Every structure is written in C-alpha cells, then in structure tokens.
Amino acid sequence: MFNGKKVSLCITGGIAAYKAAEIVSWLKQNNALVQVAMTKSACRFITPLTMQTLSANKVMTDIFCEEVEGVAHIELAKTDLFAVIPATANIMAKAAHGLADDLISAAILATKAPLLFAPAMNVNMYENVHTQSNIKHLTSVGAELVEPAEGRLACGDVGRGRLASVQELKDKISSMLLAKQDFAGKTVLVTAGPTIEAIDPVRYLANRSSGKMGYAIAKAAKMRGAKVILITGPTNIVQPAVDLFIPIQSATEMREAVLENFSACDIVIKAAAVADYRPLKVSEQKIKKSENLMLELVKNPDILQEIAARKGDKIICGFAAETENMHKNALLKLKNKNLDLLAANPVSGKDNAFGSDENRLTLFFKDGQVRELDKMTKDKAANTLLDAILELV
After folding, report:
1. Catalytic residue among 10, 43, 65, 155
2. What is the pLDDT of residue 351?
3. According to the CATH classification, is domain 187-392 in 3.40.50.10300?
C-alpha cells in the first residue's frame, strides 16, 4: 500500500509505548520503510530489540548514534512522515518552542516532512493550560494531531489522555502518507484575516474576522502540493509554513500585495474580510475625546472585482460573509464580480463563523450550481472548498 514510503516513527516515554509495536508491524506489512527512534524513557517501557525486529531496521536511541551513517537526527528527519506515537507533554513542549536537546526533538526541528503527534498522558497533564497552548501552536503551524481518547488511565484517573485507538492511528497515517498532491504545479494565492483602517495613531476601523478560514485554506493547499502565497491582515494565528507570507494592515496595502503577486498565480481564493470603507483623513495626532466625533468615510478599492476583471484563465474564488438574505446576496456578488466560485458563510446567530473553529459554507458556482455544506471544522471546509475548485480547473 505504501510502496516504499519512509516513516520515522518516534516513541517517547509512556505506558502506551507498547501500542507503537503494532503500528510498526502494520507499516512494514504494507511496504513502508520504517525508522524507529526511541527516547531513553521509552526504552524503559518497551525494548529497542522489539522495535528492531518488527521494523527490520536498527533503532535510533541517541543523537550520537554510531550505528547510523551520517548525522543521526538529520537522517531521522529525512522521511515522508514524521510521527511521534505516543507523544508526551514534554516532547510537544520542546517541539512547540523549538528546543532540540535530544535526538527526537532535534529531528523535529530539522524535518520538512508532515508531522503527526499522538498524545498520551495523565488527564490533568493533557488539560494543563501549557500543554493545550503547545498543542494549539503545533497545529497552527501545520502539525497534525490524533486526539487522545477518554477513559480509565494507567494511573487510575479517569478522563481524556489515553492514546487513540490503533485503528484511528492507522487511518490518520494512511491519510497523510497517501495524501493527494492534486495541486502540485499550481500556485494558489490566499487572502485572510481582517484589514484595519487607521483613524489616528491609536485607533482604527476593523471587523471581527479571525483569519482562521483563510489560514486553513492556505495550509490545506500547501499539504496538497501547491505553492502558496498568503496575504494576511493582523491575526493571532502563528505564521503557517507557506511559500510566501505577506502581512498587511490596510485594504490599500492588501490591494498592492495582491496585484503584485497576481500574475504568478493560477488560483486566487479571497477569504479576507476587507474593510469596505476607510477614513477620508487620518489624524497625525491622537484625537482627543469630545462630545461627538464625525468621521467622513470613503470606499476602499474592490480588490476582488479588480482582479476578476483581468483574470484570463485563472480561477477566482470569493467569500461572502452575510447576516441575511445569504443566497440572494451571494448570487449577486458571484455575477457582478465575475467569479468562478463563491463561498458564503453566515456571520450571525448560532452559525456565526467569525472567530469559530467551524464554518457552514454554501458554495455558489458560475454555472448556477449551489452546494450547501454541513457545518464542519474550518480545516475540513478548506479541503472541501479545494475539491470544488479542482472541479473548475
């Protein structure tokens, strides 16, 4: 099944280490090349000899491993998939903060392969604010996570912290190793987040966009083989691993960045929530509080309409954030702006997409087709949107 794909399977210290043996055996049975690495703590739970026998390969246990040709952590990093099963709180903390004081943490820093963590630990350790912050950071920069299961733990506590089932791990590894590279050779330009329009040195006009949808699209396109240009307004999201990352502030700056990179791309996905208006005049000094303040606003350039007018054979996908009459407004925008595809999402009520990790998209195609999607995570919505774009390529 895996036809010689290389997997670096790293085992860190925990009672769930024994389950990694079944994963190694399954990988070998399906024609993967498996390089196992183990921390000193992992070796207390299961022996390197077991993993060597199952993988038919010498096991790395030290950064100064003499049995390996070349530099151990660099060789471990050269792989098609880098999986840490089980992953302790310690190894995820090291990975999140770029520490490299042992074989596995150094290899994580050196690898360009997709990263997979399967946490297993005490429920209180897993729910600790630092562990959750580290997980959030790792997933925001592209790592994949197989959530631990709930139940009785080895220590006797009950809660979330058990290593995910072997079947779940197999499914995730299969999906990552066999991931479609259907955007290979394509350059995708994605815009994300809000724009902010200065009023004075300390105040600005903005909107509630978090940037999560645009970042999810950029990450998904990169995983599927595209060269990705991400142009983004201010967000609280860690910079993802894209080919070109361009931070901007205002709608005018976004327009300049989009036009500068437009000729280089095949597909444009305008997920940013660009401010429609900006102040006519920006005060050089902080405006002092008075009884009333009148701001004169002017329209910002319509970036989407401008690029769609000159798109040629490029695919242009727009977004519409709507609070009412979503179908009517989306169809008007699709037609008036000459788009190939428009993704509309509600931004009010229970399905409000702003700031959420989930979204409910409705896709409007140029040929009149309308496709209503279920509510799903923004990562899944991103891949569903990319599938729809492929239909147009």
Report:
1. 155
2. 64
3. yes
